[in-house]
Each structure stands twice: as C-alpha cells, then as structure tokens.
Amino acid sequence: MLDGIFSSIYGSTITASALYISAAVSLSLGMVISWIYRRTNGAGASMSSALIFLPFLVQIVILLVNGDLGAGVAVAGAFSLIRFRSSPGSALDIVIIFLAMTVGLACGMGYIGIAVMSCGIVCLMELALNRYQPAGCENDRELKITIPEDLDYTEVFDDLMSRYTRESKLVQVKTTNMGSLYNLVYHIRLRDPGSEKEFIDDLRCRNGNLDIVCGRVPKSKEAL
C-alpha cells in the first residue's frame, strides 16, 4: 500500500489527467508553503506570491527537460542567472525556497506522495519551532546610536548596557558627516521591554541628544 502511495503517477507516457493532478498538487502545496512562510516570517506579498507559483514552474521545467541533456544544461544556466540577480536572504528564506523547488521536482516526476510528505514534515516542524522559540528572541533589538567624534565609544555605554540589557554586542562602527560623527550599531537583548523608553532617554543624555534608532533585528542578520 505504501509503495503505491510513493510511486510515480506517470507511466511510459504522461497523460493529461496525471499532468492536471500534478499541477493541482504543486499549486496547492505552494499555497501551503506560502502561508507557512508568511505566518512564521511575517513576509510581504511579493515573496509569498512567488512561493505559490515556484513549485508549479519547477514542475513544468522538469517535464520539459524529461531526460534531454541539452535542455537540462540550458535550465541550469537559466537558474544560475536568476540566482545572481537575487538578493541574499535569511537561512529560513533559503530553506523555504529549497522546499518549494523540492515539491516542484517531486511533482514534475510524478511522485505526489513524496511531495506531500516532504512539504508536511517541513511545514509542521517550522510551525513547531516558531511556536516554541526562546522567549529571549522577542526582546532582541538592533540599536543604532550616533555619537560625536570626541566621545570614546569603547566603554561609554557599558554601564547602561549592563543595567538595561542581558546581552549586548557592538557589531558595526561607521564614520559619517565628514568624520565628525560615529554611527554605532549594537545587537542587544533587553531585560525588560517596558524599560525601552527609559533606556533610550539615558542614551540620549550620554550621546548629546543625537539620533538613536531602536528596532527589531532583521531576519537576515544573525541573532545574539
């Protein structure tokens, strides 16, 4: 019974009914992957829409190649061009895109059971990991502080970081305004999110009331 579920629905020739079934499954699983990605990553419409159609497009590409070595090389070259024109994403983006391509490959070869199984396992695991992620991640922030050039940034905020954060890391220093100002970028983990305003007020007193930006750490950046 299980052997039949995980076998290909294509025979010696690809029938219209088998093609329609594969297309329907690939589009349906693409919608599932898109929903999971939006729920766990809070992504916009662009990436979510692309994930819906990616399995179906990969399925069509596999059907067109169908053992043709020349067509396979051409497809590999086309995918390489798309890769170099795409901006790098987070580790989750790479996994989700790879899952969508895996589903498309499986549907393109007629292995509907394998496509459904792989999509279900990865999506359920992603939901579980997102639900039970460490609570400290909710308190992670990216802090950008502007200071004058005559202020030594190496230890000037150490006492405030110890008071308001559990962890802090200086990840970038950049000069601006013809070298008269420094832009500091920290990744921090707040002790209490309710004290964020008080923390910023104390930083303003220390940096001469220059610009301070405190926000969520982007998904594409490493956590603490």
Characterise this structure.
The protein is an alpha+beta fold and 224 residues long. Helices cover 55% and strands 16% of the residues. It contains 8 helices and 4 strands. It has helices at residues 2-5, 16-41, 45-65, 69-84, 91-108, 112-131, 158-164, 196-206, and strands at residues 140-148, 165-176, 181-190, 212-215. It has a 4-stranded antiparallel β-sheet. A hairpin with a 4-residue loop joins strand 2 and strand 3 (181-190). It is elongated.
Summed up, the helix count is 8
* Average pLDDT score: 81
Radius of gyration: 25 Å
* SSE topology string: HHHHHHEHEEHE
Shape: elongated
Query: How does the helix and strand content classify structurally?
Result: alpha+beta
Question: Helicity, in percent?
Answer: 40-55%
Strand order of the largest sheet: 2-3-1-4
Report the count of strand segments.
4
Beta-strand content bin: 15-25%
- Termini separation: 48 Å
List segments where confidence is low: pLDDT < 50 over at least 5 consecutive residues: none
Q: Main β-sheet, in a few words?
A: 4 strands, antiparallel
